[in-house]
Amino acid sequence: MMNWIRSSKGTIAIALFVVLLGAVGTAAALTVSADDPAREAQVGTEINTTVTIDDAFTENGQWTVGAETELQNVSWQLEEYDQGSRVERWNDLGGQSISQQVSSDPEGDELRVQIRGEVPAVPEYNYSNPSAENVTFVAVTSTTGDNTQTLATYEVHVYTKDSKDAREAIDSAREASDGAGNPDEVESTIDSAISSYNNGNFGNAMDLAEDAESSATSSQQTSQLLMFGAVAVVAIAVIGGGVYYWRNRGDDYDKLR
Fold first, then answer.
1. What is the rounded CA–CA span in Å between residue 110 and residue 75?
2. What is the pLDDT of residues 210-257, one digit of tens each?
3. 204 secondary structure, DSSP code
4. What pairing do the DSSP bridges indicate for beta strands 46-54 and 31-34?
5. What are phi and psi of 62, to 5 degrees?
6. Could you tell me what percent of the chain has a pLDDT over 70?
7. Measured between alpha carbons, how far is 69 from 138 in angstroms, rounded to an integer?
8. Residue 158's closest CA among 127, 117, 139, 130?
């Protein structure tokens, strides 16, 4: 268990990378991008982004753009542009999902889906699998006839102040444990901290993580003292042996004279 929970920081990075892969997994003829979408956000805060679909009518002159989110208190705006000039705008499209037929008639080559909403509660606390704490920021689809394709999906990792503090405390304990050689007692305490984190008991998780970090630091200092002591003993033995050798060599020289 301890190997696959080595560091949540690395795991978060991997999870975010997966999100980015989802964002570029688009239909071949359409280029989709988002305007600096949040990767992490605190529960209750408001976030927003704009998803742009370039060359929107290259293959089909008319289709239905859809979008959905897990944000709350959402507002949407869909705009159509032609050579950078807005030619159409739709407001008040719905709640957590929208569906709007769009067309290149009379002109249009770009669509912009704007979303603004409030970050919901964390769906599941999972220290070892941070992606379980993600929610869908926005997923955009295209529908032509019976064929629906997901153009892009952006997720956001959500947290509370307490969960973030607890996660960081466990991260710090893990680093200290690594530095101390992962003592069994320390690892056991970290496991307990992770269990408390997963159950939403962040105060207990932080206390246990701080205890683990303190124990790891103490263990590392003890190991260093033992190592320095061993080096000192070896040094004394070497010096003592050298003195003994030179003294005996001097006695032998005197006898020869």
1. 20
2. 999 999 988 766 666 666 666 766 777 777 777 766 777 666 656 655
3. H
4. antiparallel
5. -150, 130
6. 79
7. 5
8. 130
> In this predicted model, what pLDDT tens digit does every residue of 7-35 receive, in sequence order?
455 455 444 444 443 444 445 568 999 99
Residue 130: DSSP 8-state? G
Provide the token pair at 17: 């990378």
Burial 70-91 (b: 16+ CB within 10 A, else e): bbeebbbbbbbbeeeeeebebe
3-state DSSP: the chain helix, strand, coil percent, rounded to 5? Answer: 45, 30, 25
In the chain, alpha helices (H): 8-24, 161-179, 184-198, 202-256
Scanning the structure block, which residue is given the tokens 């957590």?
96
| Phi and psi, residue 119, nearest 5° | -70, 125
**Amino acid at residue number 194:** I
Per-residue b or e along 19-53, where b marks 16 or more CB atoms closer than 10 Å to that residue's CB: beeebeebbeebbbebeebbbbbeeeeebbbbbbb
Tokens of 127: 């220290």
Q: How many CA atoms lie within 13 A of 170 on its CB side?
A: 31
Cα distance between residue 196 and residue 208, in whole Å:
9
Query: What is the reported pTM?
Result: 0.75
